[in-house]
Amino acid sequence: VTGSFEYLKPFGNISLAKDASPVSTSSTMCLASATKLVTCVAAMQCVERGIIKLDEDVSAWLPEWKEAQILKGFDTSNEQKPILEKAQRPIFLKHLLSQTSGITGLENEEVMKYYSAIGHFVVSPYIISPHSDMHQLVEPLVFEPGSDWGYGQGVDWSGQLVERLTDLTLEQYCAENIFKPLGMKDTTFRLLNHPHIADNLIKMSSRKKDGTLESADTIYPLDPKTDMGGSNLYTSAPDYLELLKSLLRNDGRVLRPETVNEMFDYRLPDSLAFTKFKTENAKDYLGGLATEGMTVDHCLVGLVNNEDSKGGRKAGSVTWAGATRCFWWIDRKAGICGFYGSQLLGIHDQQISKAMFETFERAVYEDCGKLSAP
User: Fold this and answer.
1) What family name appears in the similarity comment (predicted)?
2) How many other C-beta atoms lie within 10 A of the C-beta of residue 11?
3) Which of 82, 159, 245, 321 has a Cα at 20 to 30 A from 212?
4) Helix 36-48 and helix 257-265: axis angle, to 10°?
């Protein structure tokens, strides 16, 4: 928090083995999509330094998207024949960061159908490893850039943009411009290059139908071809909290205060569908703390709740999460940020959601005297 209160506590063991060591504060986690915050900060640093503008066409550096096409459907007489039309709008950086570029990837059923039609190897939307080369993630858009909201690989392409703008790998850039200034010594995209980080890795697990846990293989490559800016960062809870605290306090260590404000205050146009989403569409991010009918929005780094929740976050709070059940949130009005990390696969695991929102987060707000009135 912005004051002196701080809480950090590990629970459980690093694996399901009987002789497994307990999790420690230095244990390593794969952030999955919670990686996106780091990449968004890197991209905003490039904006801050005048290398690119938020409303600038990215195809000068990402020529893969210069002649982007939009998937309009499939031929009624041949379902294996996609209907493609040339996009009329360019993709801006703000589109990539706010998930409004039209690049949805395997998160979209129509794109998965397209991959199948062209003979592309199709896997679960959450399995990134077969597509760890970004060149395999060039696909049709599903709408004109800036005209709708659709979750996908926009931030992964933002990471590629940072690489091409700076002539550094994303790992090199973030190490020098984010991890080093914040003292994040246990954070990397390249796990196998850092034995002290790899040795502390918590093993992945998943929940069976009966509610018990079983060991699971990681869904992300340990030695990726590309630093995936949307999914493949490894870190410890204290390291990640350093970034959250810096952004909450707006201390200028990685971004100027006005840049942080711009990043968090950005909103989608009212015409976009995402502004009409109700609580049930965002339950994995607001959980039991949401009020009935609460609407949400999206800034340049994550989901925004438009109203105070019924037990925690204030209006304007920002959050996102990952498929490994890693959650973060920043509530600038209350002066509170938090991170809940696990290595449990399953986007819709309600036991984790309950632990995160209805127990952990509520307790934090209560201890800080920031709990909303019932």
Assistant:
1) Belongs to the class-A beta-lactamase family.
2) 8
3) 321
4) 120
Contact 204, 196 (CB under 8 A): no
SS3 assignment, position 80? strand
Give dist(CA 356, CA 348) in Å, integer.
13
pTM of the model: 0.92
The bridge status of strand 205-207 relative to strand 344-345 is parallel
Q: Is 15 exposed, middle or buried, given 0-12, 13-18 or 19+ CB atoms closer than 10 A?
A: middle
Q: Which residue reads 């569409």 in tokens?
A: 281
Domains and CATH numbers, the chain: 29-33+185-367 (3.40.710.10), 58-166 (no CATH)
pLDDT digit string, tens, across residues 4-14: 678 899 999 99
Quick one: CA torsion of 45, 46, 48, 53, rounded to 10 degrees? -140
